[in-house]
Amino acid sequence: MSGLYENKDTFLRLIKMLAIQYGSKSEVILHDLTSDYESTIIGIENNHLTGRKVGDCGSNLGLEILRQDNRQKNHDSFGYITHLKDGRIFRSSTLYIYNEEGTVEGCLCINTDITEMKELSVFFSELYQSQSSQDNEKEIFAKNVGELVDYYIEKHQELLGKDSSEMSKQEKLDAIRYFDEKGLFLISKSGNKICKYLGFSKGTLYSYLENVRESN
Fold it and tell me: Looking at the whole model, is its pTM more than 0.85?
């Protein structure tokens, strides 16, 4: 498109399409920047967001562009955030329209009110955060109790930092204490996997378990 007025009808149809596409939370405006800046708006959709109308002035950004040498430069700005005096937050984009000589003639702007989305973002962020000052152990949704036993054995292996065959007697006692605190001995047949992990018999396991519970 070579300029604003050569394609004015197309631009007016375009802003109507964009307004319908993005809904009532998005204001779409067409500015004429070739005449008096007190009256630049020549087309506007969803104007309830700012209360502006055809015949009203442009924003400070357009004024700054006109103050510059605006030929043969890309002044477009997409996705910037604007804070309104009443506390609302807009996400805005501005596309400048040039004539064949490369001079700015107008601009097309989209302002989307994202205030509610920002508030929801804060809400979900707070909802996601743990209320504990310490990191809680993650919840495991296992298909069967065997997976829970495997999980805690793997977790202990990570905490141990070495192969289970290298554990001392005290480390094995500590391992049994860890599994007992996690409730693994409430699971029938968990002893088989724990015995295999620690490398001793069930008799030794339950003897160690008794010692651990007595010491506690």
Answer: no
Which pLDDT tens digit goes with each residue over 139-149?
Answer: 566 667 888 88
Taking the C-alpha atoms of residue 56 and residue 42, their distance in angstroms, rounded to an integer, is 8
Where would I find the beta strands (DSSP E) of 48-167?
77-83, 89-98, 104-113
Average pLDDT, the chain: 85
Tokens of 181: 């605190």
Q: What would the two tokens of residue 46 be?
A: 């969803």
Q: In the structure encoding, which two tokens stand for residue 133, read together?
A: 């000052």
CB pairs under 8 A, 24+ apart, for 146-152? 146/193, 148/184, 148/187, 149/184, 149/187, 149/190, 149/193, 149/194, 150/193, 152/178, 152/179, 152/182, 152/184
- Mapping DSSP to helix (H, G, I), strand (E, B) and coil, where does residue 18 land? helix
Residue with tokens 């065997």, as numbered in its chain: 146
3-class DSSP state of 93: strand
Host H or E run for residue 24: none
